[in-house]
Amino acid sequence: MKKNGFTLIEMLITVAIIGILAAVAYPAYNQFVYKGARAEAMSALLDIANKQEQYYANNHEYTNNLQRLRVAATTETGLYSIRIVSDGSSFTVTAAANDAPATKDLQCTSFSINDLGQKQVTGTADAAACWGK
User: Fold this and answer.
1) What's the CA angle centered on 33, arms 30 and 34, to 5 degrees?
2) In order along the chain (133 residues), what is the average pLDDT of each group of 10 residues?
3) Contacts of 4 (CB under 8 A, 6+ apart)
4) In whole angstroms, what is the distance from residue 63 CA to residue 68 CA?
5) How far is 77 from 88, CA to CA, in rounded Å?
6) C-alpha distances out from residue 74 to 10, 60, 118, 129, Å
7) What does the alpha-carbon distance between residue 111 and residue 64 come to, in Å, rounded to a whole number?
8) pLDDT value at position 133?
9) What angle do CA 11, 15, 18 make, to 5 degrees?
């Protein structure tokens, strides 16, 4: 007589294998998602820093007004909020985590770049690790 189906042992082995694969894959997936969010922040900051330099070339001063640079107050998908601090002769642009998954990335919470091209981060990692150097 032929039986159809799976035994309890076969099912337990299958569930154990799926559990092991999930335990390995989920952290790797999170890191992939975090890197994507970081890339969005870095791209926005580099674009704004470039626009600041163009603005300086035309007006002989930096601005702290995002509308003058024609940029939004958040990154493209809204993961980071953008802020500019400027005294006219220098500037610092900061992208702070605004929404998940960026808020869950404890290694690189916020990014900033200044008029000298110095890149900084807040979080548990150093600037070189977050900016991808």
Assistant:
1) 85
2) 78 92 87 87 94 94 92 90 92 89 83 92 85 75
3) none
4) 8
5) 29
6) 51, 26, 21, 23
7) 17
8) 61
9) 140
Angstrom distance (rounded) from CA 6 to CA 27: 31
> How much is the pTM?
0.79
Q: Which of 108, 56, 65, 58 is nearest to 85 (CA)?
A: 65
Which distant-in-sequence residues (6+ apart) come within 8 Å of 68 by Cβ? Answer: 55
* Structure token pair of residue 53: 């330099």
Determine phi and psi for 110, rounding to 5 degrees: -145, 155
**Beta bridge mates, 86:** 91
Residue 1: predicted pLDDT: 58
Q: How many CB atoms lie within 10 A of CB 2?
A: 3
In this structure, is the dihedral angle defined by the CA atoms of residues 128, 115, 98 and 73, taken in order, positive or negative? negative
